Amino acid sequence: MSSHAPYPIGTSGRPWGESERAEWLSQQKIRRSYAADVLSVIETLRARFDVSEYGRLDYAPHNYPLFAIKSRDWRDELPIALVTGGVHGYETSGVHGALRFVGQHAADYAGRANLVVVPCVSPWAYERIHRWNAAALDPNRSFRENSPAQESVALMRLVAPIRDRVLVHIDLHETTDSDESEFRPALAARDGVAYEPGEIPDGFYLVDDSAHPQPAFQQAVIAAVAKVTHIAPADSQGEIIGSPVVAAGVIEYALNQLGLCAGITSAPYKTTTEVYPDSPRATPEQCNAAQVAAVCAAIDFALAHPAKASVGQ
Question: Start and end of every Peptidase M14 domain (predicted)?
Fold first, then answer.
């Protein structure tokens, strides 16, 4: 049985209070630039798409504008495809994959679908390469009424007017080695519970909605991504990150119950991607390309099977 050193902040068995959160916050340093990496790219897209500021994050002394990129040829009769990235700021390919999709493929859907792309939901965390926001909260467990996370509140407010009109929503994520080396131990320490080590899957996988699963849709995305990077196998228990594998590269979560971003609309087609950037078999380029392939496959399948929109809703 392996042993793990206690997390350096807090007291074992006791949830963090304000002093522990302040200590944690004091250790978070800016490691890359939201303005240089994300906002500069969004600026280049303004000539072809409608770009709107849908909110701001106020983490004094830092203030972050939040942007959505939308189809310029918006038509109310068309279905809506929602793409979100950077809900966890450290998951790099989610952000850059979303931006690459807009730059290279969004025009392909003109006259076929209205696109809403939010490439970086959590810019504070993007700059610090972290999972949480400045309040030590996980935005991807905070998409619910009376959410304490600014990032989640802003995105839900943006989506509210179209919530019941979205046909497909794909939320772009990564599973990294740092999940086990930092973020899950930090979560256990923050909540005052014992840290239970897990296994990081080597490869790409998807998270379907257990309340309204769409297996054919998920497999269409898996098939497209398999041409770009490898798909994660099940572990010895037939699971991926503790959940049963229901089909090749697919697990299921209760999206709404867990407050996950992929559950913020009534879309019949929804999924969360999980790329593994730390694999010796994958490069950053492959990770970005995998996210783009997943987005295109998701939208293509949904547009080809719109009748499903009335099933289970």
Answer: 30-313
Q: Where do runs of H (alpha helix) occur along the chain? A: 18-26, 34, 40-45, 92-105, 123-128, 150-159, 178, 184-191, 215-225, 255-258, 284-304
Name the one residue in this structure whose structure tokens are 């269409």: 220
Going from N- to C-terminal start, the domains of the chain cover 18-310
Tokens coding 37: 């990496």
- Residue 270 phi/psi, 5-degree rounding, is -150, 145
Q: What was the pLDDT predicted at 5?
A: 75
Question: Number of helices (H) and strands (E), helices first, in the chain?
Answer: 11, 10
Q: What φ, ψ does residue 102 adopt, rounded to 5°?
A: -60, -50
- Per-residue pLDDT band at 4 (split at 50, 70, 90): low
Is residue 192 packed enough to be buried (19+ CB in 10 Å), middle (13-18) or exposed (0-12)? middle
pLDDT tens digits along 165-179: 999 999 999 999 999
**Cα–Cα distance, 275 to 291 (Å, whole number):** 8
Asked if 171 contacts 84 with a C-beta cutoff of 8 angstroms, the reply is yes
Question: Is residue 163 within 8 Å of residue 266, measured between CB atoms?
Answer: yes
The topology under which CATH files domain 18-310 is Aminopeptidase (3.40.630)
- What the block records as the tokens of 306 is 């719109």
3-state per-residue secondary structure call for 38-80:
HHHHHHHHCCCCEEEEEEEEEECCEEEEEEEEECCCCCCCCCE
**pLDDT (tens digit, 9 = 90+) per residue, 213-263?**
999 999 999 999 999 999 999 999 999 999 999 999 999 999 999 999 999
Q: What is the mean pLDDT of the chain?
A: 95
